[in-house]
């Protein structure tokens, strides 16, 4: 793997750079091209950027986590920017995990009807998933990500050196999205992960870079086919939601406290793989292979809320649904996702109870 990778997408008007120890230089380049630069930084990110002395940079630290993706989080950040004289020639750089990226992206897309936006994702999850594709948003009491826009960042920098300070639990959370990409699109990638997961979870640099690159390419495949998630076929961007219909419902049921995102979607992926098996789509042999991999690498596979009727109520709030039916992105084999529409909610409950 080269130590620098550059992916430029003309259609989406975005570019992604994978380059180690490059964060400071990346920010400096942005300061040269914009009148004022606002760096919104997750306060847990341990990088000494020595930026305070630069006069066209304003740094705003935010304590991150799911709790910032709220109406209050949106109001606080947007008002702070307005107070500090943000204008149309300003740029916003979000330096943090998926929660900061989702919040800052929503602010950047709506403040003054849209500002230059850059992302430096600092968790594995945000490097392989949330920083790619231009979705942003905040949560409401009725469910996750219900307020948001599609807004592509001008550039994304993936600098894996920032991952050294990330807790193991968060590494595993990001790994869950990597497996998701393999399960929906690339069975050889899944086989490769079976061999390389231990090295990856220990942050072996070349293994990590390869997995990040592979994940980004799979995500981009769907984003380019269906940026605004309008398709209702197997090329739909909704395929990336495998594990998320159940996962989002679990996260919001526990008010984002019991599980982090990757843990909730791990339970979601195993449950949706079981639903795929129940519907005759996924073979029991492949289901077993997936469960074995999850158990081996200590990814979550079950929670008792799956037996609770309240979960079904939450499932019906998912953005993919119409009328009384629940739509799932399921898998018919490892490496192949399929859009399953119109699953009656009573039937879903029956499946969950039988797990
Ligand atoms: N927009 C999208 O397309 C998309 C896709 C997938 C997930 N998401 C969203 O992403 C969010 C999850 O993102 P996440 O897993 O990055 O969570 P997060 O932003 O909450 O980060 C996890 C934890 O790690 C800390 N942290 C961040 N960088 C660190 C670093 N370098 N060192 C030490 N600690 C660090 C954070 O403060 C936080 O406590 C969810 O809200 C999910 O809905 C969005
Ligand atoms: Zn996700």
How many domains is the backbone divided into?
Answer: 2
The CATH class label of the largest domain is Mainly Alpha
Strand order of the largest sheet: 1-2-9-6-5-3-4
* General form: globular
Q: Strand content of the residues, in percent?
A: 15-25%
| Average pLDDT over all residues | 93
- What is the helix fraction of residues, given as a range? 40-55%
Tally of strands: 11
CATH architecture label name of the largest domain: Up-down Bundle
Number of helices: 12
Distance between the termini: 42 Å
Poorly predicted segments: none
Q: Structural class of the secondary elements?
A: alpha/beta
CATH fold category name of the largest domain = Dehydroquinate synthase-like, alpha domain
- Sheet of most strands: 7 strands, mixed
What's the SSE pattern? EEHEEHEHEHEEEHHHHHHHEEH
Rg to the nearest angstrom?
20 Å
What molecules are bound to this protein? nicotinamide-adenine-dinucleotide, zinc ion
The CATH superfamily of the largest domain appears as: Dehydroquinate synthase-like - alpha domain
Topology, please?
Elements: E1 4-9, E2 14-19, H1 23-33, E3 36-42, E4 57-62, H2 71-83, E5 90-96, H3 98-110, E6 116-121, H4 124-130, E7 138-140, E8 143-147, E9 155-158, H5 168-185, H6 187-201, H7 205-225, H8 244-253, H9 261-278, H10 284-296, H11 309-315, E10 325-333, E11 336-344, H12 345-353
Parallel strand pairs: 2-9, 3-4, 3-5, 5-6, 6-9
Antiparallel strand pairs: 1-2, 7-8, 10-11
The structure holds nicotinamide-adenine-dinucleotide and zinc ion (ZN).
Zinc ion (ZN) is lined by residues 129, 177, 244, 261, 265.
């Amino acid at each position: 793997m080269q130590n620098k990778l550059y992916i430029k997408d003309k259609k989406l008007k975005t570019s992604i750079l994978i380059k180690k120890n490059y964060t400071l230089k990346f920010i400096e380049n942005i300061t040269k091209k914009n009148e004022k630069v606002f760096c919104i930084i997750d306060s847990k990110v341990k990088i000494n950027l020595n930026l305070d002395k630069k006069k066209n940079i304003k740094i705003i630290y935010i304590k991150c986590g799911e709790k910032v993706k709220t109406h209050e989080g949106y109001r606080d950040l947007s008002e702070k920017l307005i107070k500090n004289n943000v204008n149309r020639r300003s740029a916003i750089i979000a330096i943090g995990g998926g929660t900061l990226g989702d919040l800052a992206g929503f602010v950047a897309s709506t403040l003054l009807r849209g500002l230059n936006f850059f992302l430096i994702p600092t968790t594995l999850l945000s490097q392989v998933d949330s920083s790619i594709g231009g979705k942003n948003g905040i949560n409401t009491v009725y469910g996750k990500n219900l307020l948001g826009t599609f807004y592509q960042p001008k550039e994304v920098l993936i600098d894996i050196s920032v991952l050294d300070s990330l807790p193991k639990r968060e590494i595993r959370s990001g790994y869950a999205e990597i497996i998701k990409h393999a399960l929906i699109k690339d069975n050889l990638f899944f086989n490769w992960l079976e061999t390389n997961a231990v090295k990856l979870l220990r942050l072996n640099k070349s293994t990590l870079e390869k997995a990040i690159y592979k994940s980004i390419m799979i995500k981009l495949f769907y984003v380019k086919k269906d940026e605004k998630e309008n398709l209702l076929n197997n090329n739909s961007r909704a395929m990336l939601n495998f594990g998320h219909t159940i996962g989002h419902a679990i996260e919001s049921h526990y008010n984002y406290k019991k599980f982090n995102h990757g843990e909730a979607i791990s339970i979601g992926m195993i449950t949706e793989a079981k639903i795929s098996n129940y519907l005759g789509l996924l073979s029991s042999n492949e289901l077993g292979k997936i469960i074995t991999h999850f158990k081996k690498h200590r990814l979550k596979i079950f929670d008792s809320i799956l037996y609770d009727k309240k979960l079904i109520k939450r499932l019906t709030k998912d953005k993919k649904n119409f009328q009384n039916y629940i739509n799932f992105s399921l898998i018919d084999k490892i490496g192949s996702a399929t859009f399953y529409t119109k699953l009656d909610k009573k039937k879903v409950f029956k499946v969950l109870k039988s797990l």
